[in-house]
Amino acid sequence: MKTYYGTGVGNSSVSGKLVHYSRTNGVPEARSIADTESEKSRFRLAKFIAVGELKCLYEKTLAELGESAAMIFYIHQIMLEDDTYTDMVCSIIDGRKINAERAVYDTCSTLAGVFEGLDDGYMRERRADVWDISERVIAILKSDSRSYPVLSEPSIILSDDLSPSELLLPEKELITGIVLTKGSTNSHTAILALKMNIPMLVNVDLTGDTLANGTAVTIDTDKGVLIIE
Q1: What are phi and psi of 203, to 5 degrees?
Q2: What pairs with residue 159 in β-bridges?
Q3: What CATH number matches the domain at 2-21+149-228, 3.30.1300.10, 3.30.365.10, 3.50.30.10, 3.30.1360.70?
Q4: What is the pLDDT of residues 192-206, one digit of tens each?
Q5: Which residue ranges make up each domain of the chain?
C-alpha cells in the first residue's frame, strides 16, 4: 500500500479504478492570413456559436444542479463576450496577420498569465476559465470536437487539471472521483465537483511515479489522501 497526499474537496471517500486523461487540444499552428477582415469575422462567428453553447450548458446545469453551479457557465459567457478579449484577438489578427485559432490561443495565454499573477486565490483560478472558453472557440474554428475524458465504466479520473466543461461530459455519471496533480479548491471545477457530489483531490504530488490505467485506489477527501491498494 502506498499513500500520496493532496488537498480534498468535500468530505467523502471512494474506491475504484484510475483512468488517465490528458488534454489533446495542443497549440494551434500559426498560419499567415492575407484577408484579416474575413479572419476576424470567422472569430466573431465562432464566438457567437460558443456563447450559444454556454447558454445551453447554463440551462442544463441549472436544471440538474441548481443556480450556483449554473452560474459558472454564465460567468464564462460574460468572459467570452468581454470587449477586452475580443479586442485582443482582433488586434493579434491585424497586427501579426495570423489565423484566428492561434490569435485566440495567444490571447488566452496572455490573459491566463495575468490571472496567474494575482494575489487573490479565487481570481487566480480564473485562468482555468479563460482556457476553457478559449478551447471552446478554437474547437469551433477548427470544426473539431473538444478533448473530453472517455469512460466506459465507473472510474476515478487522474489528470493534471480539468475544466468545468470537461467535468460535464456525456458520461459524467461514470465519474466516481477525481485526482488532479494541479488544480485548486478555489477553481470552478472544484465547485462543480462539490455540487455533483464527486470526491476530488487536487495538488496530489505524484512526482516520479506513474500510475497505470486500472490501478485500484481509494481517495479520502477528508484526510486529503490517495491510497494505492
Answers
A1: 55, 45
A2: 180
A3: 3.50.30.10
A4: 999 999 999 999 988
A5: 2-21+149-228, 37-141
> What pLDDT, in 10s, does the model give residues 113-157?
898 888 887 778 788 899 999 999 999 999 876 667 788 899 999
Cα separation, 178 vs 20, in Å, equals: 10
Grid cell, residue 24, equals: 489533446
DSSP string, 109-164: HHHHHHHHT-SSHHHHTHHHHHHHHHHHHHHHHTT-PPP----SSSEEEEES---H
Second CATH level (architecture) for the domain 37-141:
Orthogonal Bundle (1.10)
Radius of gyration of the chain (CA): 19
**Cα dihedral value 191, 195, 198, 201, nearest 10:** 20
Annotate 46-79 with DSSP letters as a single string.
Answer: HHHHHHHHHHHHHHHHHHHH-HHHHHHHHHHHHH
